[in-house]
Fold:
Amino acid sequence: MDHAEKVAQRLFESVIPGGRMSYRASQSKGEYDFDLHYADGRVSAVEVTSSVDQALRETHAAIIDKDKGGSSIPSRLCKNSWYIHLLPDTRINPLRKNADRYLAAIENAGIEKFWGPTDDRPSVESIYRDLGVMSGSVAPWMKPGNILMSLPGSGGAVGVSTVFEAAEREAFQADNRRKLGAAGVSERHLAVYVYITTLAWVPLSDFEPMSVIPNLPPEITDIWIFSESSKNSEYVLWRASSTVPWTKRKLVLEI
Structure:
């Protein structure tokens, strides 16, 4: 099982009294992930999927890659250390090779802080256009010789509707509909794990859902959307069905 499936298993078994999630190890024909066994003998189908900005996830992985130095880039040309903020799709390998040279040019122009999208100074335009550095500032709290990369996030407005949209987007994915539609049981759950890099994570964790019925395709009767909260070992869950409006719970789980 992957991380999302392990979390889903613990959530279902914690929320449903007497519930037991049986992982379907053989899925050679694209079957759903779990049989959910109720205490009264009923069995439901559960498919686990993820809501993720794949490009952003890959950017994060490239930044924290310990084999390549992690989030710090050593510098030789810069007089100062820098803290830089990147675009979500920044290519990290070219950045590691060239950031020192581009930031040294910015220093030589007497610049200590910049915002790439609106800055028309040539050295700033170059680092924004060529390397995907959105902003940066001199970092006097670090020893000279370091360029620290922040982890970029998704941009855009967020709210309760962001969570609803993430859940319903996965519900209408053809693959999820096909798997649950072929389950042959009356109750069919889709569980959507939200990565912290996506827009939906903040409202999922911090906001309260409106008491509305989700828009679900006929193949799916119940929808769960969940993730880690900002607290250690705490998970947040929004849950609804084709007849029951959204509710929210937070649970402490050991995964």
